[in-house]
Specification:
CATH superfamily of the largest domain: Metal-dependent hydrolases
Bound molecules: zinc ion
Number of domains: 2
Mean pLDDT: 95
CATH architecture of the largest domain: Alpha-Beta Barrel
Strand order of the largest sheet: 8-7-6-2-1-11-12-19-18-15-16
Distance between the termini: 39 Å
CATH class of the largest domain: Alpha Beta
Length: 404
C-alpha cells in the first residue's frame, strides 16, 4: 500500500472534502411591524433592538405601507398600544436618541408625533458589512378564505393589496406576485416575496401554496403566538405544509420547491407577547445589501433558525449527500431529522417521511435514490428563550436538496 492509499484508508475521502464555513453568514429578520402600521414602537427603536441584539439586517415590513412620506400618530394612540407602564415607546425613543429627536405637532388640539421615515434614521445604524435595513412591506390581502399576507422584500414602492373577500385565494397570491414581478422589471431591483403564516385564521392550505408555483418562499416558522404553527386536528402544522406543498410541486408539477424562512412578525416591544428575537434567517450573501441578500436567498444559500446555528453546510451534488456541523452551546445536544417524500408516495404518512434521525453535532446523509427531495430539521435539547408555543425548543430548518 503506498502512502497515499494508506492515508485514504485512515481518513476516508468524505473527510478530505473542504467544508463550507457558514459561521460568518448574515443573520436577519424579514418581518416586523412598527407604529407605521399596527406595531407599538417607533421603527428606529425597533431597528435599534435588532442592531444591539446580534443581527446584521432587519426588514421593516408594515402592513401595506412603507416608512416614507408624512405619517402622524397621536400621543394618545401611541400610549394606548403600550402593554407595560413606564417603558413606553416615547420615553425609550427620547432616552436613546435625545429629547429633540421626536417631532411633535398639535393638530386640532391633539398632540401628534410625526413618525420618522426610513431615510431619516437609516444613517444612525447602517454600516457597510455590519448592518443593513431592508425596505419591505407585508402585502396584507384578503380572499375568500381569509388573510393572504405576503412579505415583499427589497421593494421600492408599495405593492397594492386586495381587500375584496370574494377573490379566490390563489388568484390573490398571483396578483401580488404579478405586481412584484412588474415592479422588479420596472426598477431593475431584485425583489422576492415570502408567503406568511399559512395557518393564521386557517386561511391558506398547502395545496394553494403548491399551486402558486411563482412563489418560492414561505414562513416555516413565524414567532407570532397566534399563527397556529403546529396546526390542529385535521390541519397540518407549518412543517407538514412545507412537505405537502413540495411533494406536489416536485412530484406532479415539475416546479421549483418552496424554501423556508423563519421570522419574528414582531408587533410589541415593551410588554405584550408578540415580541422580537424568536425566528430569523442566516444568509450566505457576498455583501450585506438588499440585492446580494436576496440573490443568495434565491439560490437557497440560507437557513431558517429559532436558536440553532451551523458551523458548516455542504451539499455534494455528485454523491447527493447533505453534510453539516452544528455550533454547540453549553450543555446542549442536538437531534436532526432528515425528512423528504419518495416518488409515487400518496399516503399522508409518506408525505414528509423521516428518512433518518441523527444525534450529535456532525450530520451527513445521502438523499435516498427514490426521494423527490431531502430536508433537515435540527432540534436542540434546550428550550427556546422566548417560546411562541408550548414546549418550544430551539431549532433550525435547512432548505430542501436533491430535487434538481
Ligand atoms: Zn401577517
Ligand atoms: Zn406581520
Amino acid at each position: 500500500m503506498n502512502r497515499y492509499l494508506l492515508f485514504l484508508a485512515v481518513f476516508p475521502l468524505t473527510l478530505l472534502k473542504a467544508e463550507t464555513d457558514v459561521s460568518d453568514w448574515f443573520r436577519g429578520n424579514t418581518h416586523t411591524h412598527s407604529l407605521w402600521s399596527d406595531g407599538n414602537d417607533f421603527p428606529e427603536n425597533i431597528v435599534d433592538w435588532y442592531h444591539l441584539n446580534g443581527y446584521h439586517f432587519v426588514a421593516l415590513s408594515d402592513h401595506d405601507i412603507l416608512a416614507e412620506g408624512e405619517k402622524m400618530m397621536s400621543v394618545d394612540k401611541i400610549k394606548s398600544r403600550q402593554r407595560a407602564i413606564g417603558h413606553g415607546a416615547i420615553p425609550k425613543c427620547e432616552a436613546r436618541f435625545g429629547k429633540d429627536w421626536i417631532q411633535r405637532k398639535t393638530v386640532d388640539g391633539k398632540e401628534m408625533i410625526v413618525l420618522k421615515t426610513l431615510e431619516e434614521f437609516r444613517g444612525e445604524f447602517e454600516e457597510p458589512g455590519k448592518f443593513y435595513i431592508m425596505t419591505a412591506e407585508e402585502v396584507s390581502n384578503n380572499s375568500t378564505t381569509g388573510p393572504v399576507h405576503i412579505n415583499a422584500l427589497n421593494v421600492e414602492t408599495v405593492i397594492p393589496s386586495n381587500k375584496d373577500k370574494t377573490v379566490d385565494t390563489r388568484e390573490v397570491m398571483r396578483r401580488t406576485l404579478r405586481a412584484v414581478a412588474e415592479q422588479a422589471e420596472k426598477t431593475g431591483k431584485t425583489i422576492i416575496t415570502h408567503l406568511n403564516h399559512p395557518n393564521f385564521q386557517w386561511a391558506i392550505k398547502a395545496e394553494d401554496i403548491a399551486a402558486v408555483t411563482e412563489e418560492h418562499f414561505f414562513e416555516v416558522y413565524n414567532g407570532h403566538p397566534g399563527i397556529n404553527h403546529l396546526g390542529k386536528e385535521g390541519v397540518p402544522g407549518d412543517e407538514k405544509i412545507w412537505d405537502i406543498a413540495n411533494t406536489i410541486r416536485l412530484g406532479e408539477l415539475d416546479a421549483h420547491p418552496l424554501f423556508g424562512v423563519a421570522t419574528d412578525d414582531s408587533h410589541t416591544y415593551h410588554g405584550g407577547d408578540v415580541s422580537p428575537g424568536r425566528g430569523w434567517i442566516m444568509v450566505g450573501a457576498e455583501k450585506l445589501d438588499g440585492d446580494s441578500l436576496i440573490n443568495a436567498m434565491k439560490k437557497g444559500d440560507f437557513y431558517a433558525s429559532s436558536g440553532v446555528y451551523l458551523k458548516s453546510l455542504d451539499y455534494d451534488k455528485a454523491s447527493r449527500t447533505l453534510s453539516f456541523k452544528i455550533k454547540p452551546g453549553y450543555g446542549e445536544s442536538f437531534t436532526t431529522q432528515l425528512i423528504g417524500t419518495r416518488k409515487g408516495a400518496t399516503k399522508d404518512v409518506e408525505i414528509g417521511e423521516i428518512f433518518g434521525t441523527i444525534k450529535g453535532q456532525t450530520v451527513s446523509f445521502t438523499v435516498p435514490d427514490d426521494a423527490l427531495y431531502l430536508r433537515a430539521t435540527i432540534t436542540s435539547s434546550k428550550p427556546h428563550h422566548n417560546p411562541s408555543f408550548k414546549d418550544q425548543k430551539k431549532q433550525a430548518w435547512l432548505q430542501p436538496v436533491g430535487w434538481r
